[in-house]
User: Fold this.
Amino acid sequence: MSLEEKLGIHASPTCVLSYGEQGGAVGWRIGDAHRGLEAMFTMMNTERLLVGVQGVAIAERAYQAALAYARTRVQGMPVGMPRGGEVPPIVHHPDVRRMLLSMRAQTEAARALAYYAAALIDAGRHGPASRAQRRAELLIPVVKAWCSDKGIEIASTGIQVHGGMGYVEETGAAQYFRDARIAAIYEGTNGIQANDLVGRKLARDGGEAARDLFAEMRRDLSDVGDEGLAPIRHALADGLAALEDGTACLLAAEPAPAAAGSVPYLNLFGSVAAGWLMLRMAAAAPRLAPPSAAAAKRATASFYAQHVLAFAPGWLAAVKAGERVMDIDPTIL
Assistant:
């Protein structure tokens, strides 16, 4: 028996365990009979939240490393800066700045979504059928899949910021990418999370928990009257309209086409839910943070609206295209 050779997480050994090869194995039941699946999902929901947090953690570390590198690496005069002076570090290059802002904004959004779900779990412990518990259960597959996918995407962008050095092990940027990749696979692949979101969490109550969440988002859109946040509100309103449309579409669809549209739906859901939380944080920032930190929070939320939320309505077409996916003969693949 030997250790598995893996793409990443090399510090976590993986090997095969065999039970009962020398005459059988003995097992003892834990808990009440016929309640094993219930117990398993209590554990799985916690684990799936933690996998989402793992994606956030790797994204944050990749961002920190990329930012530190961009502040010291000198390569060419940035576009728009006068020639003849001292060449500044690459953080001044427009596209490097865009990549770093993308990493920062999406990491903050993913962190907000994970924290919000964790707070709902705590609140839900006051009653198993409470509103908070139902919303937490709705959001757990979104947190697991969306945040772990963001970890992969942000770690990949971190390599790009490093340029050729990002492909060299010396910088450590490649390790973040390798280690992030497993989070989309274990504790239920992200495709399974999307199927769970659509096939179980939406279907079990006809979308009631989702519509309750959307109604709260709409109330916040109306309540946030700060004109400085108008671009974020407009992008969120468009994304929310697409999310409501996609939800109604999947609730009316047959199971197979709904499953085929579930991954784009989860991406739409995650983008909009995190955008809603970014709006709330931007609105609260002036009351809670020093002026410089508040300005940074609002700028980051604005970037998220313009570069992430702006794509949210585009996921709707893919959500509705599940029927066409099922029309394709799998033998041609």
About this structure: The chain has two domains: 36-77+86-188, 198-319. The radius of gyration is 22 Å. The CA atoms of residues 165 and 171 lie 7 Å apart.
